[in-house]
Amino acid sequence: MGQVFENANHASVVLEIIEAIHENASYLSEIDGATGDGDHGVNMNKGFMMAKDRIEEGMDFAEALKILGRTLVMDIGGSMGPIYGTMFSKLNKTLKKEEKITKEVFLEALENARDGLMDLAGAQLGDKTLVDTIYPACEEYKKAMEEGKNFGECLGAMSEGAERGKENTKNLVAKLGRAARLGERSRGFLDAGATSCCIILKTMAASMQKRLSEE
Ligand SMILES: [Mg+2]
């Protein structure tokens, strides 16, 4: 069976994601300030910290994802609440049935999250949004899986895809949201959503890698 990630007692992965957003809040607002209103880090931090109070260490990974998703949808405003809320809820829906999450199941969860985001945000690849991070992250993960890599290596590939996609938003012109009003002038800057999505995916990958078990 190879490497698996046990759902039980792994809320710690979600708590590490929350911590990473908290630590990067000022950085995210600074990036948002270059092409938007500079509130991305503040909004994200508010929602993620609210969720932190509702998550306990001993909870399941999927349960913690559900609480985070729900908190973001219900309690943070703007466009990011529903967008990230959808991403975490989609991950929860695919993963909650599994006692032991395999690399195949995790790919399915990741693809469902990506599709949910694209539907909700109406964003395509190249629009300079978080889709430009999650899309290549999914592709790299899938490619690694097809090459027969183990779960940990697939997660590593996901991180590399996320990083590359996020960095590439500097070359793109914004098509959606506040930054779209800048047109060509949005080129040369990172997208704030793509950056927070990269922090989330890379932290999730590293945190899961540490907790994989052999079957
Ligand atoms: Mg903003």
UniProtKB/TrEMBL annotation:
It holds the Pfam family Dak2. The keyword Cell wall biogenesis/degradation does not apply. GO terms for biological process: glycerol catabolic process. It comes from the Bacteria. This is phosphoenolpyruvate--glycerone phosphotransferase. Its EC number is 2.7.1.121. Homodimer. The dihydroxyacetone kinase complex is composed of a homodimer of DhaM, a homodimer of DhaK and the subunit DhaL.
